[in-house]
Specification:
About 20% of the residues lie in helices and about 55% in strands. It has about 260 residues and is α+β, with helices and mostly antiparallel strands.
Amino acid sequence: FSVDKSLQDASKEGLSGMTIKIGDQDTHGVLDTSLATTSTLDTKIQGYTVVMQAKQGPQTTRVDGLTSHVAWQPTADGLMTMTAQSDLSGYKAATMLPDGQKLAIDIGNMRASMTAKGVTMADIGTIIHNSVQLGVAAKALKASGAPKPDGIPDADKATVKALVKALAGLMGSLTTDTSYEDVKVDVGGQTGSLHRLSIGFDMAAPNGHADIAWRIGLEGLDSPLIPPGVYRDYLPRQLKLTPHIGGVSKPELVALVMR
């Protein structure tokens, strides 16, 4: 199907129209409203195209295919385990930069996964409620024409604190992994490629102490801009970074964020 929607409200940002086309899509799921058994949601999309009409020219995004699977699994302690996997193929994006140069990005495959354990459903409701409140307040402030305040407005501080507290108690642990394969970038004829970029994140708080870790990996970086000789010879073929923060008291960390 095709959707053509006027975006006159966004004209100040240089966006005047948008067209969305989807060649084929299938979405189905099973929902247990009592959350006593597993609920699932599966999606498959093919031939997805978005064209946005911007001041500097059309911006196009195309995806050959996308599949995703999401599941909510109740556990014996009354909490939930949430898992999600997605696989996207044939991503292509093109736009004109403000300086007139064309930017094109091609990604062969994008894969992502997420596992959240010990999820408290009550906190999800609190997060949604307070997020909506903050969004409404921000929209009202913009509509009033009042100058943007420095920091969080006093009227919103209680909402922000409730949101932070709910986020802190939302889950026992979180693991995410995202990978981008066969990445190609072209900026005004200057090109570069990457065989694989992977980004992972782990977060937990065993025994009340926050444990946070990142996993970042690069493989197969290449570009005609890299001259032959010593620069190309010593260019890393693989790079891995694993920053880690541990042993931080979770209550003290939450108190610091809420100040």
